[in-house]
Amino acid sequence: MFIDSHCHLDFPDLASNLDELLDKMQQNKVTHALCVSVNLQDFPRVLALAEKHDNLFASVGVHPDYENQQEPDAAQLADLAQHPKIIAIGETGLDYFRLQGDLEWQRERFRQHIRAARMSNKPLIIHTRSAAEDTLRIMREEGADQIGGVMHCFTESWEVAQKAIEMNFYISFSGIVTFKNAVALKEVAKNVPLDRMLIETDSPYLAPVPFRGKLNQPAFVRHVAEEIARLRAVDLEDIAIVTTNNFFNLFKVASTPST
Predict the structure, then answer these.
(1) Residue 230 lies in a domain
(2) Phi-psi region at 100: left, alpha or beta (left = phi > 0; alpha = psi -120 to 50)
(3) From CA 259, how far away is CA 63, in angstroms rounded?
(4) Confidence check: pLDDT of 72 > 80
(5) What's 129's domain CATH number?
């Protein structure tokens, strides 16, 4: 079985067709999915999905790309994370690709999330783009290694992956690893220890080959696993087993029946 460790089923393009998406998950042996929060305004609908479906989980956090948001403090996030279907803090992190100028607010927001993770004992979901050095620095300064988490939709170098793994983090691969031009990322996927690997879709974005350019969905996470199995010359079942076990180990949840 497979698990989509990062998706956005509450986004309109997916939420409007949820029943069909859940059916397709089942058809492709994708038994569970983690629906990830991007702001506090829409958090209730993320949580509602997880409450309604036994095989869906949720996170709470504010994405670094979302400017002019209510800035969460650590105590607020930790309080929201007490709900049993909330299994992670995030997504959080730094993104210097989309936004420019004084981004100190982004760094402070990131710090609040790390503190919330430590307070709530829930792992972090970290987004980093064109900001690896500062991301790793703040992780070290705030003691992110004490709680751990996942570097989601990983696109950085093997060196960055190693440093994150040393801080008790998993590396999650999305559909990008299936892209023909993702040569460096394919090498990372060959080298990440299997006990530190997750797979995801980040749907509705980044659909893997052979669906590249189309609307992504959790059922497609199987294609991410197939590419990693091909790169590492192992059986698909091996990738399915280790990434599934890694998910439940990281997020400290028991396997629940798929629906």
Answers:
(1) yes
(2) beta
(3) 29
(4) yes
(5) 3.20.20.140
Number of domains comprising the chain: 1
SS3 30: strand
- CA–CA separation, 165 vs 37, rounded Å? 24
Give the residues across from 34 on adjacent strands.
57
With respect to residue 107, please indicate whether it lies within any of the assigned structural domains: yes
Over pLDDT 70: what percentage of the chain?
98
* Helix locations, 53-94, DSSP H: 74-80
Give the model confidence (pLDDT) of 74-91 as tens digits: 999 999 999 999 999 999
Question: Whole-prediction pTM value?
Answer: 0.96
Q: Residues in the chain, how many? A: 259
3-state secondary structure of 26: helix
DSSP-derived letter for residue 157 is -
Element (H, E) at 90: strand 86-95
Mean pLDDT of 161-186: 98
Cβ–Cβ < 8 Å for 49, 21: no
